[in-house]
Amino acid sequence: MKLHYLFLAPWIVLVVPSQVFLGLGILIVLVVGFLGLYGMFAKKQAFTILASVMLLVSLVAGKAGTDLTRASSPDTAVLLLQLVAILFFMEASRVVLSFDKEMGELAGRTDDMSQVVRCRLAMWVTGQLSRQARLMIGALGLSLVLLVLGGFTSVSINQPALSAILVLLVVGALLFLITQRREPETRQP
Amino acid sequence: MFTRKASLYFALAAVALILGLLLQDWQLASMVLPLASMFFLANFWGLPEKVELGISHLVVPTDSFGDEDISVHIMISNKTDNQLGNVEVDEFLPGEIKLKSGASRVLTRLGARENFALGLEFHSPIRGHYQIGPLVARVQDPFGFYLVEERSEAEILSIMPRPERIRGAQLRPRHLGPWPGTIPARTLGPGTEFYSMRDYVAGDDPKRINWKTSAKHARLIVNEMEAERVTDVMIVLDTDVSYYEAAEAELFERGVRAAASMASLLLRQGNRVGMVLQGEERGAVSPRFGKRHERNILFLLAAAKPGRALLSTSYVITLLARLMLPAKAQIIIISPLLDATIANGIRQLAATGYSMLVLSPLPKAPARFKSEEEEIAYRMLMLGRSNTLLALEKICTVSQWPAGIPLSAILSEVRPTRPIIRV
Question: In CATH, what number does B232-412 get?
Answer without folding.
Answer: 3.40.50.410
